[in-house]
Design brief:
The structure is a single chain. By secondary structure, the protein is α+β, with helices and mostly antiparallel strands. It has one domain: Sandwich (Immunoglobulin-like), CATH 2.60.40. An 8-stranded antiparallel sheet has the order 1-2-3-6-5-4-7-8, with no helix packed on it. Strand 7 and strand 8 form a beta hairpin. The longest helix has 23 residues.
Length: 137
């Protein structure tokens, strides 16, 4: 009987740890950085602070149908980021998106080397484009 009790306690602790780990990646705590509607899609950039900092960044891109606000898979997502520079060619920053495992949600990593207003062109689906404005601090 004692072994069954110990087994039940171990199982309960393991389940609690799994649920806690799942809660740590809960996307409901994310704050909007910018959003644009393009066609029937809402494209939203989100992260934990709602701000983008100079240097390495991680954020989430969400694609929702504007008609019902449900996440929707848009296939391959490509990013191009640039900051206009007066009298010079625009500065570019590396950025790429990978599927998060949830349809319509993509993890983005970028390395932005200068503060200022950056434009992220998001290309997705069948030739769709969105332009997100990120104020890098």
């Amino acid at each position: 009987m004692r072994m069954k009790l110990i087994g039940a306690v171990v199982a309960a602790v393991a389940l609690g740890l799994v649920l806690t780990a799942c809660g740590a990646s809960d996307k409901s705590n994310l704050k909007q950085i910018d959003q644009q509607r393009t066609g029937d899609y809402l494209v939203t950039a989100l992260n934990e602070t709602g701000q983008v900092k100079q240097g390495p960044n991680k954020f989430v891109l969400e694609f929702r149908k504007a008609s019902d606000n449900k996440l929707t898979d848009v296939g391959n997502v490509q990013l191009n980021s640039a900051m206009p520079m007066p009298g010079m060619p625009p500065m570019n920053a590396g950025a790429y998106a990978t599927p998060s495992g949830t349809a319509g949600r993509y993890n983005v990593e970028s390395d932005i080397q200068m503060r200022g207003k950056w434009t992220f062109i998001v290309m997705f689906g069948n030739g769709q484009r969105a332009s997100l404005s990120l104020n890098v601090q």
